[in-house]
Design brief:
The structure is a homodimer of 301-residue chains. In chain A, strand 3 and strand 4 form a beta hairpin. Chain A has 2 domains: 175 residues, Formiminotransferase-cyclodeaminase, Chain B, domain 1 (2-Layer Sandwich), CATH 3.30.990.10; 114 residues, Formiminotransferase, C-terminal subdomain (Alpha-Beta Plaits), CATH 3.30.70. By secondary structure, chain A is α+β, with helices and mostly antiparallel strands. In chain A, strands 1, 2, 3, 4, 5, 6 and 7 form a 7-stranded mixed β-sheet that branches. Chain A has a 4-stranded antiparallel β-sheet with strand order 9-10-8-11. In chain A, 32% of the residues lie in helices and 25% in strands. At the A-B interface, strand 3, helix 7, strand 11 and helix 8 of A face strand 3, helix 7, strand 11 and helix 8 of B.
Chain lengths: 301, 301
């Protein structure tokens, strides 16, 4: 409860999901850094990959991430890596997410400084991606990682794919790392009183960005067989610009066309406070409300 | 960011609003206690009274409150006190409010332990009030304080008004103190597209508890002359049982009768996160949502 801290989330992915001792050592970097909290970590044998979710003060997070990346570079050998999930490096992707009292610009600057230090300290080639990308061609991670580890040694020698930091000569053991910044994802599903997967799919196509819908919404139709209903399953990629209430109301409107009703919605996993309070403010028609009025914000300073 | 802390708010009122040096010394007790945050303090000359708002870990808050009460007992002399606001002691009322990871029962226990220690340490007569009251007759602060300081020396000698802690002989300099527990208040106003104060007043009477409305709602009609509209001005005394969306929808329904529309609403001052998220959950028809999913809660542990 001292002065305001800039809080970020970091969700790095490492190319190890089978040797759990290695996963634990990577997680330790977050567990043992003051002002950083290890929220979750999970590994998948088929993917041979682990995902860490950590929350903490920006500078402390930088320190923890660099320590974790160093551990991964020491203990993972990409020349022997096999797994179903696309990957290009031992530390594969390192996205930073602004949570509190930090702007996206500042989060991008943090990502850049982490990328620079990883490149210098370990001689690692780094791509900046998503909001940290220096060119539009590098925003999309799938494009950056295309060809995966096996093609990366050649790819980073091309002028178009010169790394943002580090050498153009790929270190075989550690590969290439993508460091980026993005908004928090909100996994948001809307349930319909229909058992027809086609209805959910048609509605998803109306509301999602790629086919003409809301800018920060990805989605598809999903069947919930045990409940005998269908759902529009979405990822909201920037709740501050595409609000939950907006997609909820839009799905209701699209559903009317098929004589279908919205029966409920669900948030899977974590959601920033503001994403929900923003919807409360819409429905209650709140005037002049600011997030500072939320009592708990003074607990987070 | 260590283990979960029990967080309470405390809003003590002291009988000094003119000598600001005294007010500062009382505020210092909260300012200088680790794990306690002084959120706000204000004093009023006419009332000759100051109100402190502090937030912090339960045990630390107990320590800060006892220190502040001791300072007030040392520096305020009730035999010379004059002011427009009802009062009965140098430390007049000390309400504790549960905020995070603490139940109302635990908050009542905290209030009792503070009351006991103030009585023992300073020889102060104490009444427990609101949720901490031991009998229904002491729930209402106005009844407890009736007669004010001037009548209190006699009142606490009556069997009915024997203090919950401390002597039945009132110390003249410090008077009597009420210590209690309550839910956070939410000051919530709903604006109507009418300029008729009677309409707002009639609606207030339908929705407030005392005249047949919602259990934890107090309210009255108010005229906003500068905007040319009227408003139903309310205090929600337990948002966990009488939700904001419920009173909002009820005011809409009552307003229809007069051909009047709700144009907006406003929250004055602080509001607990859950009071708004609960309304978002209602309107978005959220299924199986828990407050643990709110990302920021892990920042408050």
């Amino acid at each position: 409860m001292s002065s305001k801290k800039q809080i970020v989330q970091c969700v790095p992915n490492f190319s190890e999901g089978r040797d759990l001792a290695v996963v634990e050592k990577i997680a330790d970097a977050f567990r043992n850094t003051p002002d950083v909290k290890l929220l979750d970590y999970s590994s998948d044998e088929d993917h041979n990959r682990c995902v860490i979710t950590a929350l903490g003060e920006a500078k402390a997070m930088k320190e923890a991430v660099i320590k974790a990346v160093g551990t991964a570079f020491e203990l993972i050998d990409m020349t022997k890596h096999e797994g179903q999930h696309p990957r290009m490096g031992a530390a594969d992707v390192v996205p930073f997410v602004p949570i509190k009292d930090i702007t996206m610009e500042e989060t991008v600057a943090l990502a850049e400084s982490v990328a620079e230090e990883i490149a210098e300290k370990f001689g690692q080639p780094i791509f900046l991606y998503e909001k940290a990308a220096k060119t539009p061609g590098r925003e999309n991670l799938a494009k950056v990682r295309k060809g995966q580890y096996e093609a990366m040694a050649e790819k980073i020698k091309e002028a178009e794919w010169k790394p943002d930091f580090g050498p153009t000569e790929m270190p075989p053991q550690t590969g290439v790392t993508a460091v980026g910044a993005r908004m928090p994802l909100v996994a948001y599903n809307i349930n319909l009183d229909s058992s027809d997967p086609e209805v959910a799919d048609k509605i998803a196509k109306k509301v999602r960005h790629i086919s003409g819908g809301l800018r920060y919404c990805k989605g598809m139709g999903v069947e919930l067989k045990d409940r005998g209903i269908v759902q529009v399953s979405m990822n909201m990629t920037d709740y501050s610009k595409t609000a939950l209430y907006r997609v909820f109301e839009l799905v209701k409107i699209e559903a009317q066309r098929y004589g279908v009703n919205v029966v409920g919605s669900e948030i899977v996993g974590a959601v920033p406070m503001e994403a929900l309070i923003d919807s409360a403010a819409y429905y209650l028609r709140l005037e002049d409300f600011t997030m500072d009025q939320v009592l708990e914000t003074s607990l987070m300073e």
